[in-house]
Design brief:
It contains 14 helices and 19 strands. With 540 residues, it is α+β, with helices and mostly antiparallel strands. It folds into four domains: 99 residues, PUA domain (Archaeosine Trna-guanine Transglycosylase, Chain: A, domain 4, Roll); 205 residues, Pseudouridine synthase, CATH 3.30.2350.10; 48 residues, no CATH class; 48 residues. Strand 9 and strand 10 form a beta hairpin. It catalyses: uridine in 5S rRNA = pseudouridine in 5S rRNA; uridine in snRNA = pseudouridine in snRNA; a uridine in mRNA = a pseudouridine in mRNA. Keywords: Isomerase. One of its GO terms (molecular function) is RNA binding. Belongs to the pseudouridine synthase TruB family.
């Protein structure tokens, strides 16, 4: 650093030993205490793409935004979230854990891209303030505090009857409890509780009544903190959101809406940070792992398999990742995977594509365009020897290991690069060469003996071919026999059908004759009756 000093001649620069440190304690969101991060390198090319989370355009600001909402009593959490979606006219909204209809307090509503953080926020810790009603008077307020102290740590809980969840016994941890107030006249108690996600405070109140021997139930509940945000962190009501949207729509004033909505980075301030180069950002958005060359800065105390947040130099969250290196390893290695991606937050192509721009990749593209490599970048007849010897085709080596050892040098161009120990052979090199020439010049019939110059894998292949031919002839024989059997069975089947048809015809004829006979008898009887009636009428 240097100081500019005004002298008689003009301004001069004076060298200085001391370099003043940056004070980043008041920088926003993920950039807070940026100067305290470990520096791997300071060399990178900044890009004009992207911007600070607080300075995004209003459309992107809403898209990457969250709302710390004060949920009103009576409507359900899903109803409230649906109303927010309709008011803000966005595609998606989600929330950080359901609250019962009568419960009020913090409900984090995530908008569009921020919905990717919903899962992580649902599993985060919660804090509540609860009013409990005891069925009988307690001896003193001290009993109340003692009862609360016993209900800390891992507790067995079964969801209450009202809940829509399966009533299954589960273990939930209560981290801390604190008595705020106790009213002896009305048998009411007020307490604060910090607990794991999924803890039922209603069940906790019932258990408290059982422990104190008087019985109790929950009267009122308010969530004070959900994950990283509490009710003191710019909490807003439904009316605030409605008014902010109306002001923006009619007056084009963004300030009210920007106050109501916060950037999603405010949920990630508790995570350990890893700063990524601008050239590596888009590759991570497409799902690539973060490698050491893309690392700029990293936080102290990162452990293996710990969940971390990958961020840009401008303070934008790129993705949530799982660390595959500790802080100590990151500072000591030159290559390797730093973190794998768990959930991508940033939209693709926000930053420019920067993969395939290295010297090797550019040379490969040039050879493909000239026709010296095929369209997949594989070696062909026109490939220069310098490329064959220097470039290691991992896909080709994988194929060659599957097929077995190959004799040609072109199949494995990098074989000479790796020094190997000499292998003891039973034959001389000349005999091996003759054997290979023989196999190339003349074709050998399958029935003839295999020459001695051939290698074991070739012998095995030819033996397999012979076996395959034998099995195919056997199959053909068996197929002919099957056809004959099928014909015989079909003839028998036809004969049986004819017999059945004859029998059915005979039975039909018999039934027809019997029906006709019955009809004739009925007609005769009816005629006889008519004749008798006529005779009687005449006689009368």
């Amino acid at each position: 650093m240097a100081d500019s000093i005004k002298s008689e001649e003009g301004y001069s620069i004076k060298p200085q030993k001391y370099t003043p440190a940056l004070d980043t304690s008041e920088w926003p969101l993920l950039l807070k205490n940026y100067d305290k991060l470990h520096v791997r390198t300071g060399h990178y090319t900044p890009v004009t793409h992207g911007c600070s989370p607080l300075k995004r355009e209003i459309v992107d600001y809403i898209k990457y935004g969250i709302i710390n909402l004060d949920k009103p009593a009576n409507p359900s959490s899903h109803e409230v979230v649906a109303w927010v979606r309709r008011i803000l006219e966005v595609e998606k909204t989600g929330h950080s854990g359901t609250l019962d209809p009568k419960v009020t307090g913090c409900l984090i509503v995530c908008i569009d891209r921020a919905t990717r953080l919903v899962k992580s926020q649902q599993s985060a810790g919660k804090e509540y303030v609860c009013v409990v009603r005891f069925h009988e008077a307690l001896e003193s307020a001290k009993k109340f505090t003692q009862g609360l102290e016993t209900l800390t740590g891992a507790l067995f809980q079964r969801p209450p009857l009202i809940s829509a969840v399966k009533r299954q016994l589960r273990i939930r941890t209560v981290h801390e409890t604190k008595m705020i107030e106790y009213d002896e006249n009305r048998h009411l108690g007020l307490f604060w509780v910090s607990c794991e996600a999924g803890t039922y405070i209603r069940t906790l109140c019932v258990h408290l009544g059982l422990i104190l021997g008087v019985g109790a139930h929950m009267q009122e509940l308010r969530r004070v903190r959900s994950g990283a945000l509490s009710e003191n962190d710019d909490i807003v009501t439904m009316h605030d959101i409605l008014d902010a949207k109306w002001v923006h729509k009619n007056t084009k004033d963004e300030t009210y809406l920007r106050r109501a909505i916060r950037p999603l980075e405010s949920l990630l301030t508790t995570y350990k940070r890893i700063v990524v180069k601008d050239s590596a950002v888009n590759a991570i958005c497409y799902g690539a792992k973060l490698m050491i060359p893309g690392l700029l800065r990293y936080e102290d105390g990162i452990e293996l398999n710990e969940e971390v947040v990958l961020m840009t130099t401008k303070g934008e969250a790129i993705a949530l990742g799982i660390a595959l290196m500790t802080t100590a390893v990151m500072s000591s290695v030159d290559h390797g995977v730093v973190a794998k991606i768990k959930r991508v937050i940033m939209e693709r192509d926000t930053y420019p594509r920067a993969w395939g721009l290295g010297p090797k990749a550019m040379e490969k593209k040039k050879l493909i365009s000239e026709g010296k490599l095929d369209k997949y970048g594989r070696v062909n007849d026109n490939t220069p020897t310098s490329w064959k010897t220097s470039f290691v085709d991992l896909s080709a080596s994988a194929i060659s290991t599957k097929d077995g050892p190959s004799t040609s040098s072109a199949a494995v161009p990098h074989a000479n690069l790796v020094p190997t120990a000499p292998v003891a052979s039973t034959q001389s090199t000349e005999d091996q060469e003759e054997g290979t020439i023989l196999t190339k010049k003349r074709k050998i019939d399958d029935d003839s003996d295999i020459p001695t110059g051939e290698s074991k894998p070739k012998k095995e292949k030819k033996a397999k071919k012979v076996k395959i031919k034998e099995t195919s002839t056997e199959k053909k024989m068996s197929d002919d026999e099957k056809d004959i059997e099928a014909e015989e069975s079909s003839e028998k089947h036809i004969k049986k059908k004819l017999k059945k048809e004859k029998k059915s015809d005979i039975s039909e004829q018999e039934t027809a004759t019997t029906v006709e006979g019955e009809k004739k008898e009925k007609k005769k009887k009816s005629k006889e009756k008519k004749d008798k009636k006529e005779k009687k009428s005449k006689s009368s």
